[in-house]
Automatic annotation (TrEMBL):
Organism superkingdom: Eukaryota
Keyword Amino-acid biosynthesis set for record: no
Protein name per Swiss-Prot or TrEMBL: Cytochrome b5 heme-binding domain-containing protein
Keywords for this protein: Heme, Iron, Metal-binding
All copies of domain Cytochrome b5 heme-binding, residue ranges: 6-80
Source organism: Ridgeia piscesae
Length: 97
């Protein structure tokens, strides 16, 4: 059983939650469900809904230590990369001498 903050979530999954009613974002490798916060966000909901991977935007604004701490309560997991399966390597051709 996980604590909810260690659930592995892909960026593709985050991108499935991009409305004001169902809004997930990834910041610094952590995934947050901001659905309950979006209506009271001082910067408005457009700034949150803008992109799923929001680290650059979050850092650009320069959030306070209080805002950074407040984010903890909305964390639902960690962002993971999906590793593409390597195609099977072709068998070496037989050599005839």
């Amino acid at each position: 059983m996980t604590d909810g903050k260690t659930r592995e979530i892909t960026l593709a999954e985050v991108k499935e939650h991009t409305t004001a009613e169902d809004c997930w974002v990834a910041v610094d490798g952590k995934v947050y469900d901001l659905s309950d916060y979006i209506d009271i966000h001082p910067g408005g909901n457009e700034s949150i809904e803008a992109e799923a991977e929001a680290t650059k935007a979050y850092d650009f604004v320069g959030h306070s230590a209080y805002a950074n701490k407040m984010m903890d309560q909305y964390q639902i997991g960690i962002l993971v990369e999906v590793k593409k399966e390597e195609p099977p390597s072709p068998e070496e051709p037989e050599t005839f001498v």
